[in-house]
Amino acid sequence: MALLHEDPRAGATSNAPRWNLKGNVLLQSFPLLEAMSVVLLSIVSGMVYDLVSFGHFGEYGRNFGLGVVVAALFSTSAYARGLYLSSEPRSLASQIKEVVLIWTGVFLCLSVVALALKVGDMFSRQAVMLFFVTGVGGIIFVRLGAGRLFASLTRSDMLAKPQVVIVTQSDVRVPSGVVQAIEASGCDVCQTITLPAASSEGSLLECMDKLIEHVRRRSVDEIVLAVSWADISLIEKITAHLCVVPVPVRLLPDHVVSALLKRPVVNLGGTRAIELQRAPLTAPQLLTKRLFDLVLTTAALPFLLPPLAVVAGLIALESRGPVLFCQRRAGFNGRTFKIYKFRTMTILEDGPVVPQACRGDPRVTRVGRILRRFSIDEIPQLWNVLKGDMSLIGPRPHALAHDSEYSQIISLYPARHKVKPGITGWAQINGCRGATPHVYMMIKRVEHDMWYVNNWSVWLDVTILLLTIPRIWTGRNAF
């Protein structure tokens, strides 16, 4: 992204991206910040004009609409002109020139449209002129400040480099230029794992377990395979083992097939690799989903706190013990976290064996039976959402004892952890709710969870959220 920041290396040619991959997560949110600034400046300009001219604030709805239209036109034009995505640093003067030209062009176009539709009288010319002047200055200020911020973070290494693990064979030589190319792209090769020349199934499994543990412990961002393409069986086995981690897995071409590649390839620094697996959600999608969770959760909590206090009082009056029940669950990337629920049983189980609740279960209290029937006991998990352990929508997390059991039976079960677990999910609104006394019931739940992982969208989350309440009232599988 060509933010307003003077680069001391300007004029030098380099194929390396200016920011590392984690820095790009922040950069990709910049167009939204810039658009919000434009809308805010439109409202403020109109309010200032009304205050100076009439001595009071006027109605700001029109100014808000004007700001939205201008922000949309400016962002679209700026993107087309390469002001958001640029492979080479752009000088400060060049960016200011582009901003002024695009901003002026947007207002000229709107002026022509206003004259053609005869709606110019709806807006004060003085207010529009004030918006024009403050808007272009505001955009330059925002871009300059953001550019300096990102540059400062990069120099101080606060934007940690993405961690890359290379997996290779003892009889396959990794070209020396590959590591340099990966590191030149802003990544850090944190470990190179060498597989035995003639690895048995047991030794390969042990090696993959160590790799998965390393990925989860070190928060690895990418896995690169440098193995012989002739050993298709090995590649398939490695891919099958790594399907449980939510990181991209890429295969480097060997010297035999590099000239024969016809499949789409991805750039990996100065070299190329075939993408065998993608992270389920891209960085912008993860940011969107997180904002979706935070906005809805913070908006709902003030209304939920009074009835939740009543529920807590009923639980305390009926039986001794804590109001909240904490249990360890496996979350994103298999990492363990403590989930919060209203206590609905007379016991608190979190060991190697956790029997599932069944109809007429004597462990369930009278209040707990009502809470479980309508899933009210799950509402405290909003705190897990705020903490970032969970999402509003996602595969339901199970007790660690159940995870251990079903991971041995269902091969795709651990792949549910490629996204954050949710309070509700696609499986739940499709009837897969409650106990799973038969394996086929869990298989069906996993199939729904994997469909959600592979087909996520904001509208899918909205659909699941809207369908959750009617499904709770009509469902009969929670005991």
TrEMBL record:
It is a multi-pass membrane protein. NCBIfam families: EPS_sugtrans (TIGR03025), WcaJ_sugtrans (TIGR03023). The keyword Membrane applies. One of its GO terms (molecular function) is undecaprenyl-phosphate glucose phosphotransferase activity. Its EC number is 2.7.8.31. The chain crosses the membrane at residues 30-52, 64-80, 100-117, 129-151, 294-317, 451-473. InterPro entries: Bact_transf, EPS_sugar_tfrase, Undecaprenyl-P_gluc_Ptfrase. PANTHER family: COLANIC BIOSYNTHESIS UDP-GLUCOSE LIPID CARRIER TRANSFERASE, UDP-GLUCOSE:UNDECAPRENYL-PHOSPHATE GLUCOSE-1-PHOSPHATE TRANSFERASE. It is found in: Membrane. It comes from the Bacteria. It comes from Mesorhizobium onobrychidis. Its main location: membrane. This is Undecaprenyl-phosphate glucose phosphotransferase. Keywords: Exopolysaccharide synthesis, Membrane, Transferase, Transmembrane, Transmembrane helix. Belongs to the bacterial sugar transferase family. Coiled coil: none annotated. Pfam families: Bac_transf, CoA_binding_3. Residues 289-472 form the Bacterial sugar transferase domain. It is an enzyme of class 2 (transferase).
